[in-house]
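TICKET: design request
STATUS: open
ATTACHED STRUCTURE:
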């Protein structure tokens, strides 16, 4: 590697990413629309839309509302069901060379376990992201995400059903995000994704009723970025598993702020609706910023604004260990021995 090259690779709870930028679940479907704009293999991973055991048509329209600096959605977990995701979407994503993380959503512990079991040995699946926090369905997934004991149960049953790395996506709609993070980490989460959407509402004044048929929806976009950043910063101080940060990231500088807060990787969601190449712009922007600043390895940048960081700098193997057959990226690199000290920083920041 020449002095000017920057290594962007990170390993997030056993999922090896070529760079720290992934799609936020729900905002890229299965990647088909975005593949018209850029090769999906340019990203660290494609995190697919929440997958349920049975197919779901989702909620009646309207399903999205624009808000100041953001949007509300109420999709209702529309998806073709896990069996079709396995037979149609994952093979297609593999053909694209994408690293694949499958987001799953269940309505019971049994469903989470069954989803994890069905995806366990599917070729090309590098990890699962457990969505324990969909705000937009009956029997809300939120019942799992608002209490540490139920969140722990979901992770435990999924952990028993699969050797795949488990990222657990937390909801911000809780009193103490640190407590939730600790609970899922203790139960076997390999990484924590946060934040999911904040519950919000828009009202049509003339119609005198909420715009979304279910009343509330999930708020995303730049409006929630400061909330997300604070929660990532906090969680990175209380758990020893890596954090995937998300919430309103629209530019490379936004992403860099999440890395500085302690996220080992970031997810781009709502920004892709107005700029379909946002995620790739962010990969390139991170790389050029780090090069300008004299960093040769993105891992050296993680957590630099968070003196009490406990989360690692993007180098942890999954505790469950690689499953038989391994992930498509090949064997994981050894854990970085210098995780406690800045890595690859040649000239220092600034
Ligand atoms: C859905 C919406 C969300 O904001 C979310 O976090 C998960 C799922 C949905 O309605 O499908």
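STATUS: resolved
RESOLUTION: sequence designed for all positions
ATTACHED SEQUENCE:
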């Amino acid at each position: 590697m020449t002095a000017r090259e920057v290594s962007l690779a990170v390993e997030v709870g056993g999922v090896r990413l070529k760079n720290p930028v992934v799609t936020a679940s729900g905002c890229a479907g299965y990647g088909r629309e975005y593949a018209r704009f850029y090769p999906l293999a340019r990203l660290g991973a494609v995190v697919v839309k929440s997958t349920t055991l049975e197919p779901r048509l989702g909620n009646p329209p309207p399903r999205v509302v624009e808000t100041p600096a953001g949007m509300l959605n109420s999709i209702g977990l529309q998806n073709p069901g896990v069996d079709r995701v396995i037979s149609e979407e994952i093979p297609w994503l593999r053909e694209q060379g994408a690293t694949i993380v499958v987001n799953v959503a269940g309505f019971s512990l049994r469903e989470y376990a069954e989803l994890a079991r069905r995806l366990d040995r599917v070729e090309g699946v590098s990890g699962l992201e457990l969505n324990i926090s969909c705000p937009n369905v009956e029997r809300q997934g939120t019942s799992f995400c608002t209490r540490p004991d139920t969140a722990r149960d979901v992770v435990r049953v999924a952990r028993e059903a699969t050797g795949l790395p488990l990222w657990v996506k937390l909801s911000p709609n809780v009193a103490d995000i640190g407590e939730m993070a600790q609970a899922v980490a203790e139960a076997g989460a390999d990484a924590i994704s946060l934040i999911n959407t904040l519950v919000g509402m828009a009202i049509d004044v003339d119609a005198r009723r909420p715009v979304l048929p279910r009343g509330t929806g999930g708020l995303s976009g730049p409006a929630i970025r400061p909330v997300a950043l604070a929660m990532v910063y906090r969680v990175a101080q209380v758990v020893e598993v890596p954090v995937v940060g998300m919430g309103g990231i629209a530019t490379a500088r936004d992403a860099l702020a999440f890395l500085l807060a302690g996220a080992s990787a970031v997810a781009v969601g709502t920004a892709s609706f107005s700029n379909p190449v946002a995620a790739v712009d962010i990969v390139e922007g991170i790389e050029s910023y780090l090069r300008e600043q004299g960093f040769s390895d993105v891992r050296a940048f993680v957590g630099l604004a968070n003196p009490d960081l406990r989360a690692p700098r993007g180098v942890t193997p999954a505790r469950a260990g690689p499953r038989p057959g391994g992930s498509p990226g090949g064997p994981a690199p050894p854990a970085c021995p210098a995780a406690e000290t800045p890595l690859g920083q040649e000239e220092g920041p600034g």
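CLOSING REMARK: The chain has nine helices and 16 strands. Confidence is low (pLDDT under 50) at residues 320-350.
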